[in-house]
C-alpha cells in the first residue's frame, strides 16, 4: 500500500520547514510527499525550492482556502492512503511511518492513532482517541487529520472536502463516511503527530462560525436538530441525556427519511420539555 503525505501551507515559513524536516527524518522512505502552497509571500516558496527534490509534487498558487488546498493535494496524490500533515504540525518521531505502514495493509478505510496537542505557551499533552467512533463522538469532537490515514477511495466515493465550509469540512467528511457511509476503521496504539494549536477553529473569534457550520451540516444532511438545535446545546449533560437514547440506532435512521422525520419530532419534543423544566 502506497502512502501520500500532504502538507498545505500559506505564509507559515517557520512551521513549513519544521513539518518538512519531520517528514524527511523518517526511517521509512516508502511514501510520496506533496506540498500545496497558497502563493505565500513570506519566504515559504524559497523553503519549498530548497527541498523540492524531496517532493513528488509541489505547487504555489492562489487557492480558495484550506480545504481547496487539501483537495488539490488529493487530486495530485497517487497513494492508496493519504495523511494530511499541514504546515507547522510534525510527525511524532522518525519511526512513525515505519510503524504505520504494516497497518495500512489491513485495507481498512481509515487508520488512526493518537496525537500530542501543542498549545501556545503551555505544556503539550497527549490526546487519545477512542477505539469506537459513532455519532456521540462526532457531536463533541472529531478525528485529528494529522493522526488519520485516509484511503483515497473514500474521496472518490463520497467526494472531496466541502469548500463552502471554512472550519469544519474535515469533521463533516468523517461524520459522513463513518456514521452514514459505514466506512471501516482501525485504531492503532501509536502517537502519530504533534498538532500545533492556533488554527482557524481554535481562535476565539471563530467559535460562532464554527458552531454555525456544524449546524449547517446537521440540518442539511441529517435533519437531526431542526429547530431544536440551540436547545440541544444548552448543557452538555442534557445533550448527552438525549443523544444517549437515540445514538444506538442513529446509523440506520440517517439513511431512512421516514425514520428521520419521526426522530426529529421526538428530539424536538424532548428539547421542549427540557426548556419547560427550566422555566
What does this structure look like?
A hairpin with a 6-residue loop joins β6 and β7 (125-127). Helices cover 42% and strands 19% of the residues. The longest helix is centred in the last third of the chain and has 22 residues, at 257-278. α1 runs parallel beside α2. Residues 231-257 have low confidence and may be disordered. By secondary structure, it is of the alpha/beta class.
Spell out the key features of this protein.
279 residues, alpha/beta, Spore Coat Polysaccharide Biosynthesis Protein SpsA, Chain A, 9-stranded mixed beta sheet, 12 helices, 9 strands, 42% helix, globular
Break the fold down into its secondary structure elements and pairings:
Layout: E1 3-9, H1 13-24, E2 31-37, H2 44-50, E3 57-60, H3 66-76, E4 81-84, E5 90-91, H4 96-104, E6 110-118, E7 125-127, H5 135-138, E8 148-151, H6 152-158, H7 169-180, E9 185-196, H8 207-221, H9 229-232, H10 236-246, H11 250-253, H12 257-278
Parallel strand pairs: 1-2, 1-4, 2-3, 6-9
Antiparallel strand pairs: 4-8, 5-9, 6-7, 6-8
Helix pairs in contact: 1-2
Amino acid at each position: 500500500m502506497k502512502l501520500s503525505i500532504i502538507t498545505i501551507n500559506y505564509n507559515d515559513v517557520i512551521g513549513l520547514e519544521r513539518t518538512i524536516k519531520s517528514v524527511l527524518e523518517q526511517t521509512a522512505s516508502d511514501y510520496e510527499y506533496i506540498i500545496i502552497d497558497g502563493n505565500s509571500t513570506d519566504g515559504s516558496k524559497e523553503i519549498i525550492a530548497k527541498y523540492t527534490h524531496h517532493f513528488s509534487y509541489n505547487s504555489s498558487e492562489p487557492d480558495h482556502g484550506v480545504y481547496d488546498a487539501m483537495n488539490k493535494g488529493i487530486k495530485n496524490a497517487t497513494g492508496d492512503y493519504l495523511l494530511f500533515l499541514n504546515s507547522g504540525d510534525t510527525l511524532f518521531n522518525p519511526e512513525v511511518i515505519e510503524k504505520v505502514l504494516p497497518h495500512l495493509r489491513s485495507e481498512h478505510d481509515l487508520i488512526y492513532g493518537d496525537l500530542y496537542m501543542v498549545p501556545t505557551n503551555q505544556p503539550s499533552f497527549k490526546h487519545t482517541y477512542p477505539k469506537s467512533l459513532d455519532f456521540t463522538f462526532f457531536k463533541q469532537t472529531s478525528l485529528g487529520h494529522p493522526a488519520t490515514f485516509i484511503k483515497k477511495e473514500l474521496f472518490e466515493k463520497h467526494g472531496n472536502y466541502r469548500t463552502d465550509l471554512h472550519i469544519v469540512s474535515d469533521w463533516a467528511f468523517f461524520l459522513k463516511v463513518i456514521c452514514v457511509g459505514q466506512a471501516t476503521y482501525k485504531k492503532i496504539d501509536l502517537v502519530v503527530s504533534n498538532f500545533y494549536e492556533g488554527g482557524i477553529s481554535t481562535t476565539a473569534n471563530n467559535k460562532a462560525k464554527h458552531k454555525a457550520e456544524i449546524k449547517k451540516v446537521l440540518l442539511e444532511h441529517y435533519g437531526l436538530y431542526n429547530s431544536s438545535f440551540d436547545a440541544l446545546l444548552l448543557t452538555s449533560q442534557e445533550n448527552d441525556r438525549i443523544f444517549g437514547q437515540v445514538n444506538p440506532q442513529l446509523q440506520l435512521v440517517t439513511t431512512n427519511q421516514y425514520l428521520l422525520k419521526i426522530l426529529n419530532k421526538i428530539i424536538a419534543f424532548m428539547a421542549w420539555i427540557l426548556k419547560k423544566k427550566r422555566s
